[in-house]
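Hey, I was hoping to borrow your eyes for a little while. A protein chain has come my way and I'm curious about its shape. Take your time with it, there's no hurry, and the full record follows here:
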Amino acid sequence: MSEVSSARRDGIGVGVAVGVSGVAFGSAAVTAGLDVAQACVLSLFAFTGASQFALAGVVGGGGNLVAGTLGALLLGARNTFYGLRLADLLAVRGPRRWFAAHGVIDETTAVATAQRTPEGSRAGFYATFAGVYVFWNLTTLAGAAFTRQMADPSLLGLDAVGPATFLALLWPRFREPGTRQIAVLGAGIALLSTPFLPPGVPVLLSAVAVLAGFLRSGTRGPGRDLAEKESV
């Protein structure tokens, strides 16, 4: 099997596996107070799972849409850095850049950068983009429509589906000690400030942890990192 065919196969497989979690988002969005159409529009045009769950979580917790949107934008900002890496691999020009930019997410980046040739990277990127986008939007509609029919979604525990899936999406990023420290600091800031601030604001305030992480990594310097690696 050629690398292009293998990349497409992997991309579609990832798309199906990840896209199924759209059911959880659709359910979480409706439980948070959004209607089916609003949930579907978010998946169609935002198309970044963690950010969508964050927005639904803030709105569901009593926060306003502005706070939820700002939190979602903070999480989605990482896609900008993915785009810098993918720009050379995809080598798209003109209006196609806007289309490709919409598909820059964790999964498409992972599959594209895992390939050995530019052709394989492009095939993997677009196959993953198509797979995730189609299944994510279909399952968002299914989850939202099903939850909408429930008189009280919390009776089936559907109100817990969103936070649980959000944690599952973030869990792979906790493998590195630095990321875990930032997560713990951010969670601590949010928990301590929750009794004193309006809903949604603690989530935004927790972004201070990311700034602290950047400052810490900047003060380490390359010499210290090299010394630590050599001592292992």
Residues 176-232 form one domain.
